[in-house]
Amino acid sequence: MEGKRDFDHLTQEDKVMISDSWGKVYANADDIGVPILIRLFATDPSSKQYFSKFKDIEDLKELEKNPHLKNHARKVLKAINTMVENINNAEKVTSVFNTLGNSHALRHKVEPRYFKVLSDVIVTVLGETFTEVMTSAVAQAWRNFFTAMCANFNDVYQEVGWNGN
């Protein structure tokens, strides 16, 4: 995994809007993470197949209370937080993408398309939940961020020889 991963294509304005808005979002991480994953599963039910500890729970209300779901929601938001905090630090961002990309490709065997689905869900849920923060410009900055995130994950998947098995 030699490739450099970064958010260099984002404008400085994008980076500022992402950092500023994320502070408000991450302050509410425990309240926003579960709704994001619940929306992911409602939007694309096949995404639940990768979660052995709760993939068989059909009732979304019951799933909301599942401690394993809450734990994974925290992990997702913590990973995004690390990327946002290090948005200008290619070395740290590369490390995060390599670690997460490796585990999702090789251990969990998650199809890379789910990163795009999750990204779209996050922008939607943030827009609905943080209406005062997620202006159209901020939402576009986040879409740009997630486009870069997905491209970085795709690069890792390619480097590890992802073949879907």
Brief overview, please?
Helices cover 68% and strands 0% of the residues. The protein is mostly helical and 165 residues long. Belongs to the globin family.
What is the secondary structure topology, with strand pairs?
Blueprint: H1 12-26, H2 29-43, H3 60-64, H4 67-85, H5 90-107, H6 113-129, H7 136-159
Helix pairs in contact: 1-4, 1-7, 2-4, 2-6, 5-7, 6-7
Family: Belongs to the globin family.
Keywords: Heme, Iron, Metal-binding, Oxygen transport, Transport
Protein name: superoxide dismutase
Structure description:
It is an enzyme of class 1 (oxidoreductase). It catalyses: H2O2 + AH2 = A + 2 H2O; Fe(III)-heme b-[protein] + nitric oxide + H2O = Fe(II)-heme b-[protein] + nitrite + 2 H(+); 2 superoxide + 2 H(+) = H2O2 + O2; Fe(II)-heme b-[protein] + nitric oxide + O2 = Fe(III)-heme b-[protein] + nitrate. GO terms for molecular function: heme binding; iron ion binding; oxygen binding; oxygen carrier activity; superoxide dismutase activity. The chain is mostly helical and 165 residues long. Helix content is 68%, strand content 0%. Helix 1 (12-26) packs across helix 7 and helix 5 packs across helix 7. It has a single domain (12-159), classed as Globins (Globin-like, Orthogonal Bundle).
